[in-house]
Amino acid sequence: MSNIPQELKYTAEHEWVSSVGDASVRIGITDHAQDALGDIVFVNLPTVGSSVVAGQACGEVESTKSVSDLYAPVSGVVVAVNEAVVTSPESINADPYGAGWLFDVSAANPADMDGLLDAAAYAGLLGE
C-alpha cells in the first residue's frame, strides 16, 4: 500500500503538489511512482525561470528500469529546483515527499490546483 499524505494534491501521472505560499507550489513524484520506477539514477528538471504548462512534459526521471516523463501539474514559472536530487537522485526513493521534492512553480492560475486529485481520489486511482 502506498504512502499517500492527506494534505497533498495529486495528478493521474503520479506527481504530488503542495502549496508553499502565495501562488507557489512544490512538485514531486509520489511514493507509488518511485516504487514502480525502482532505483532512480538520474533526474532532468526544468530550469529556474523556464515556463511550464499544465499537462505538458517538463522533465524526466530515469531509473534502472525505465525513463518516465515529468508532467507539470500547473502552468507557471519555475522558481526553484531541488539541486540535491540532481546530484543524489536516490533521495527521491528514500523520501519522495520530503527531501526528494523536485521543483517549485509560481502558478499562473492558482485555480489549477482545484482540478487536481485529493488523497482519496488518488488512492482510488491506484485501487487502494
Compact description:
The protein has helices spanning 31-37, 83-87, 90-94, 119-126, and strands at 9-10, 15-19, 24-29, 40-44, 51-52, 57-63, 67-71, 76-81, 103-107.
Walk me through the structure:
This protein has helices spanning 31-37, 83-87, 90-94, 119-126, and strands spanning 9-10, 15-19, 24-29, 40-44, 51-52, 57-63, 67-71, 76-81, 103-107. The termini are close together. Helix content is 20%, strand content 34%. A 6-stranded antiparallel β-sheet has the order 1-2-3-9-8-5. A 3-stranded antiparallel β-sheet has the order 4-6-7. It has 128 residues and is α+β, with helices and mostly antiparallel strands. The model has no long low-confidence stretch (mean pLDDT 94). The longest helix has 8 residues, at 119-126. The chain has one domain: OB fold (Dihydrolipoamide Acetyltransferase, E2P) (Beta Barrel). Strand 6 and strand 7 form a beta hairpin.
Determine the structural class based on helices, strands and strand pairing.
alpha+beta
Percentage of residues in DSSP E strands:
25-35%
The major sheet is characterized as: 6 strands, antiparallel
Instruction: State the CATH topology.
Output: OB fold (Dihydrolipoamide Acetyltransferase, E2P)
Uncertain segments: none
The CATH class turns out to be Mainly Beta
- Listing every helix as H and every strand as E from the N terminus to the C terminus, the arrangement reads EEEHEEEEEHHEH
Query: In what order do the strands lie side by side in the largest sheet?
Result: 1-2-3-9-8-5
CATH architecture: Beta Barrel
CATH homologous superfamily title: RNA polymerase II/Efflux pump adaptor protein, barrel-sandwich hybrid domain
| H/I helix tally | 4
End-to-end distance: 7 Å
In helices, the fraction of residues equals 10-25%
**Overall radius of gyration:** 13 Å
